[in-house]
């Protein structure tokens, strides 16, 4: 019985391996056109990564006074702009609707990916 279980597990792993590899290759080749390029390089150097904004992602919201606050993406508009819940330093929250991605340095009332480092 134990030999049969090992054989079945090996067969399942062998059958799944090509599917997993093909999926990884497909994901690399088929980057969606509506992805937003990250302004910071991949950890350890390399090319900048493209990320698609999705509900639940944590981002930065840039205020007109130059400060940025933590924000949570809660909706995606057809235009690619996002709806955010923005948190101030005291934990108070406010809703921001139809917020564009920050394309210019220090662009106010826009969002960006957090930098790592």
How would the blueprint of this fold be written?
Elements: H1 2-29, E1 36-41, E2 48-51, E3 58-62, E4 68-76, E5 82-87, E6 93-99, E7 110-112
Antiparallel strand pairs: 1-2, 3-4, 3-7, 4-5, 5-6
Descriptive notes:
The structure is a single chain. The longest helix is centred in the first third of the chain and has 28 residues, at 2-29. The strands form 2 sheets. The chain has a 5-stranded antiparallel sheet, with no helix packed on it. It contains 1 helix and 7 strands. By secondary structure, the protein is α+β, with helices and mostly antiparallel strands.
Q: What labels would you give this structure?
A:
single chain; about 120 residues; alpha+beta; SH3 type barrels; two-stranded antiparallel sheet; 1 helix; about 25% helix
Task: Please identify, by name, the CATH architecture of the largest domain.
Answer: Roll
Secondary structure category? alpha+beta
Number of strands: 7
Q: How would a crystallographer describe the biggest sheet?
A: 5 strands, antiparallel
Strand fraction band? 25-35%
Distance between the termini: 52 Å
Q: Kindly report the average pLDDT value.
A: 74
Oligomer: single chain
What letter string, H or E per element, gives the SSE order?
A: HEEEEEEE
Shape: globular
Number of structural domains: 2
Biggest β-sheet: strands ordered side by side in the sheet: 6-5-4-3-7
CATH class of the largest domain: Mainly Beta
């Amino acid at each position: 019985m134990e030999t049969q279980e090992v054989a079945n597990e090996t067969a399942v792993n062998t059958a799944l391996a090509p599917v997993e590899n093909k999926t990884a290759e497909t994901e690399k080749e088929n980057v969606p056109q509506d992805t937003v390029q990250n302004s910071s390089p991949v950890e350890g150097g390399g090319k900048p990564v493209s990320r698609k904004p999705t509900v639940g992602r944590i981002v930065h919201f840039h205020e007109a006074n130059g400060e940025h606050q933590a924000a949570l993406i809660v909706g995606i508009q057809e235009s690619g702009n996002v709806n955010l819940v923005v948190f101030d330093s005291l934990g108070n929250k406010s809703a921001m609707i139809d917020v564009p991605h920050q394309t210019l340095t220090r662009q106010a009332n826009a969002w960006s990916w957090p930098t790592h480092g």
